């Protein structure tokens, strides 16, 4: 229980003097950099090369000020990085042979948790990287969403919403990773159940530079009218047939206006994602 509480406080609890003096940790100011293996549970998928070069330049001039946190694997006797991936890569880029480290006894779960906490505190993870790490904690280590929320300082709803992002199509995930759309945009787009429509809507949002609110309005327009059942439909008459023909010619797509018991319904057919995008461009 004590260890879990310390995790929730972040990395500061791991590198203060008391922690270094603790029997579970040891400080080494000149540890062989080539003996450090990457963290197999690192949640980060990408590090900006330009940012890394900037850190390397700083390290050449000032050295590594904050020690890396590593752990020794009992089975292989290898040393794995827990936290400080950017500093490690930048130190390697700067040509350093040794770096300061805190060697700490850690389980695989703690390796993931601590790397996750560090990145969240530095705001270095994108939403999908966070979501993948949260899902791994749940599926691999059996951690509840409530416990994850306590550890990383989010509320449970935030954890749930981030994990939902993993349901996005791969094409849309790429747009999130590349920061073409924000987490807010992605959550709004999840309201579109049809994958083809969701991908096309994402492209439209990016091309038009839509805000999150505008994206939510787009999703409502795409979903409008869904859910009506065919038992309420009635045959079209000459008037609806006439306007169906006019609408089809105007849009360049097959359109049908269907009379119903109350009001009616307009159905516009498309076959491909490009056609849907073209159609939405004409309607909005």
- Give me the count of strands: 7
User: Can you tell me the CATH topology of the largest domain?
Assistant: Conserved hypothetical protein from pyrococcus furiosus pfu- 392566-001, ParB domain
Order of helical and strand elements? HHHEEHEEHEHHHHHHHHHEEH
Gross morphology is elongated
Q: Which CATH architecture of the largest domain would you pick?
A: Alpha-Beta Complex
Q: Note the total helix count.
A: 15
- How far do the termini sit from each other? 55 Å
Structural class: alpha/beta
User: Percent of residues in helical segments?
Assistant: 40-55%
Describe it for me?
With 284 residues, the protein is α/β, with parallel strands linked by helices. It folds into 3 domains: 2-125, Conserved hypothetical protein from pyrococcus furiosus pfu- 392566-001, ParB domain; 171-223; 230-271, no CATH class. 54% of the residues lie in helices and 13% in strands. It is built from 15 helices and 7 strands. It has helices spanning 2-8, 12-15, 17-21, 49-62, 85-94, 108-121, 127-141, 145-152, 156-164, 170-177, 183-189, 195-208, 212-223, 238-251, 273-283; strands at residues 25-32, 36-37, 68-72, 79-83, 98-104, 255-259, 264-268. The strands form 2 sheets. Strands 1-5-3-4-2 form a 5-stranded mixed sheet. A two-stranded antiparallel sheet has the order 6-7. A hairpin with a 4-residue loop joins β6 (255-259) and β7. α8 (145-152) packs across α9 (156-164) and α11 runs parallel beside α13. The longest helix has 15 residues, at 127-141. It starts with a helix and ends with a helix. Residues 1-23 and 225-233 have low confidence and may be disordered.
């Amino acid at each position: 229980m004590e260890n879990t509480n310390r995790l929730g406080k972040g990395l500061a609890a791991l590198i203060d003097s008391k922690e270094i003096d603790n029997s579970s940790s040891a400080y080494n100011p000149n540890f062989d950099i080539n003996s450090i293996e990457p963290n197999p549970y690192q949640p980060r998928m990408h590090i900006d090369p330009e940012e890394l070069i900037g850190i390397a330049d700083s390290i050449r001039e000032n050295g590594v000020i904050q020690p890396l946190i590593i752990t020794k694997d009992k089975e292989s006797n290898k040393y794995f990085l827990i936290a400080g991936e950017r500093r490690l890569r930048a130190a390697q880029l700067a040509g350093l042979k040794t770096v300061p480290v805190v060697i700490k006894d850690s389980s695989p779960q703690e390796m993931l948790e601590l790397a996750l906490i560090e990145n969240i505190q530095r705001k270095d993870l994108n939403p999908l990287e966070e979501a993948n790490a949260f899902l791994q904690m749940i599926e691999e280590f059996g951690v509840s969403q409530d416990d994850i929320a306590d550890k990383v300082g989010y509320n449970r709803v935030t954890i749930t919403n981030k994990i939902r992002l993993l349901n996005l199509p791969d094409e849309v995930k790429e747009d999130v990773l590349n920061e073409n759309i924000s987490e807010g945009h992605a959550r709004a787009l999840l309201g579109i159940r049809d994958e083809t429509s969701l991908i096309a809507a994402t492209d439209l949002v990016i091309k038009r530079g839509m805000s999150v609110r505008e994206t939510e309005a787009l999703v409502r327009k795409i979903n409008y009218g869904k859910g009506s059942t065919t038992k309420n439909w009635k045959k079209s008459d000459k008037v609806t047939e006439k306007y169906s023909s006019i609408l089809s010619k105007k849009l360049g797509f097959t359109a049908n206006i269907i009379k119903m018991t109350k009001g009616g319904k307009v159905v516009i057919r498309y076959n491909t994602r490009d056609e849907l995008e073209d159609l939405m461009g004409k309607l909005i």
